[in-house]
């Protein structure tokens, strides 16, 4: 008797994107551009705010196209140590003879 297979539909597993980019990053960059435009109320600030908005939207779309969860990968990589020594496990203690052969 063959195993029963259950289909997993894409609708229930989609990532949370907004305008083609990560939802939180796109909305936050839009909020910053909106705040810049309406707090300064100048033509230069409007042009810079719109350029900031479209640039951030373009970057967020590229990031989501490359990897949908790149923001989470980046934030997790920031928590790691700066240097991992070349050992099989972080709990291993190398003997002195092993260290002496590389000098």
What does this structure look like?
The protein has a domain at 20-78. The longest helix has 24 residues, at 43-66. It has helices spanning 23-40, 43-66, 70-79, 96-100, and strands at residues 17-18, 21-22. Helices cover 55% and strands 4% of the residues. Helix 1 (23-40) packs antiparallel against helix 2. The protein has 4 helices and 2 strands. Strands 1-2 form a two-stranded antiparallel ribbon. The model has no long low-confidence stretch (mean pLDDT 85). With 103 residues, the chain is mainly alpha-helical.
What is the count of DSSP helices, taking H or I runs of 4+ residues? 4
- Strand ordering within the main sheet: 1-2
Cα Rg: 24 Å
State the separation between the terminal residues, measured CA to CA.
62 Å
Query: What is the H/E string?
Result: EEHHHH
Mean pLDDT: 85
- Percent of residues in helices comes to 55-70%
Characterize the largest beta sheet: strand count, sense, and whether it forms a barrel: 2 strands, antiparallel
How is the topology of this model organized?
Layout: E1 17-18, E2 21-22, H1 23-40, H2 43-66, H3 70-79, H4 96-100
Antiparallel strand pairs: 1-2
Helix pairs in contact: 1-2
Summarize the structure.
This protein is mainly alpha-helical and 103 residues long.
Notable traits:
103 residues, mainly alpha, two-stranded antiparallel ribbon
